[in-house]
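Sample 1 of the test manifest.
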Amino acid sequence: MASHMYLRSELFGQWRNGRIRPVYDERQSAGVVFFVNCINGVDGVAYGGSPETPFATITYAIAAAVTGRGDLIIVMPGYTETIATLAGLVVDKANLTILGMGNGDTRPTITFNGGGILATVDLDVDAANVTIENFSFINTEDAATGPIDVNAAGCSLINCSFTDAGADNTVDWILLDANADNCLIKDCVNNGTSTDGNDSWISVTGACEGLRVINCYSHGEFDAANIEFLAAATRFQISNCWLENEDAVDVNIEGFAGCTGWVDNCMCQIPTDTQITWINTMPNAQVFENYGCNQPGETGKIVLAAGLSA
Amino acid sequence: MALAHTSLFVSNQHGNMNIVDQEICVGRVFFVDHSSANAGDTAQHGQSMDQPFDTVAYAATQCVDLRGDWIALGPNHTETVAAAAGIGFGTLGVPVRDVTVFGVVGHGGARPTITFNGAGADTTVDINIDSDGITFKNIKFLNTEDGALAPLDVNGANCVFDNCVFQDDGTDVTIDWILNVAAGLTVKNCIHYGTSTAGADTWISSGAAAGLRILNNQSYGDLAVANIESTAAITSAIIDGNWLENENAVDANIDLFAASTGFITRNYCRVATDAQVTWIDPGNCMGGENYGVNNNGECGMITGVVSV
């Protein structure tokens, strides 16, 4: 009896014109994959299709992507790019993922620097369902007003860091307008300055719905709060975050009248002893098992943002 | 333009065909398995599990800075570190940033094992991590050198230990398993099996460093300082979701330097002496929902002074 040929993989190389072509797993990637490396890449039509022949810039890769196809841009470790203008980088292709490789400081780094005169330098996310993962964002433009500007639905920022360089302030790092429904900000780190002049890490400027901020760390001196709502956002979820605000405003999450959603399992720290305003203006939100601390070295107490249910 | 519909690429390394998922690894993959009859530390080895390198020590020298290389260890791989810097990443002054060393397939006892043994004479046996972005996954570290000072010496930023085991053999004591002076050290999903024998100081000892992350680990030992200590101020730290047990009468699980900042949250702590409530010295960190127990069979109480 003939023996079976057992297979260890559902992945197959394809032999075409004397070469083994890339291996396809359509379950994982329905779109096209582009590679970007500023060290050895070239922005040209013959490039971008493999790690050995990458594009040089993310901007060129975005232009090569097709909206809605589910394309993936893989950005190599050590990639650096400086954004020096308003809309210096625009992600305008729907269903696009931009994935950085590397760990910590070897991740692709996007620096915002307007030459000391342009505080509006920013990256615009203008298409739906864009994911940006594993990037380091650094602001060296003091008082930059909103480096990450999300204006479309279903976008995700995953495992990214947002760092203020030295004493350079970022007024609001991430702006979410009314179109930014169902935004996901997950596993991110915000290392803000201890210098006065920041408002927030995340500023919800429009009445979007379904924002989720999960498993993030934020530190800074924020005149408003680590996370602020300037409009009646709905169905938001802020879970499992560590929020530290050095500013005497003594607020970590500032709500807005009429906003609805959930805040749970967050650890909140403010600088002024006896203040208990960690989570503020949340009359219509559900608040569960958040702890607040107002003195270095102390243990948090349960935050009762709007009184205990009875 | 040549379009690729996948992140999976065939790479030809010395006549071997490997398929690499570029979403995970954009660099070269080197294979290491001392248990293979075909293993060898030459340029003709290391390109497949059929003809792997013999040691991680050699594989580390083949990695290239910032290429995103991986070193894959067979589940039965064993290697002994017998001297200071027995394995080095960037130790010779040539950086090899962004290297991942991971154990393939093996879980539990089938993990690749790296043993520290200075033949009873050299307690400085260690792996030196001098480059940034070095990651270890799914590896068992075993110490058989009684009084080993610091088997894992972390000097490069953003080093990660994920799903690793740190075990003292019998009564062989490890003074400090991980000695860190660099920013961004992450230790997560790991298990530390120390001895019940006095002589150890800590599992993790850190100097001044920013962004330390110690998440979801289990640590046990007779530790004269604590399971986790900082000898200088750490900043922006998160120590969350750990199970920490110390058999030593010092009765401390986390002992941080006075000016340390960050968060110590959701840890379960156990000390040896009934009525002692010294589980955590937080420095200036915020505590939250940490529980401490000081007698067998008891329920933990909230640790620390609660804000008012």
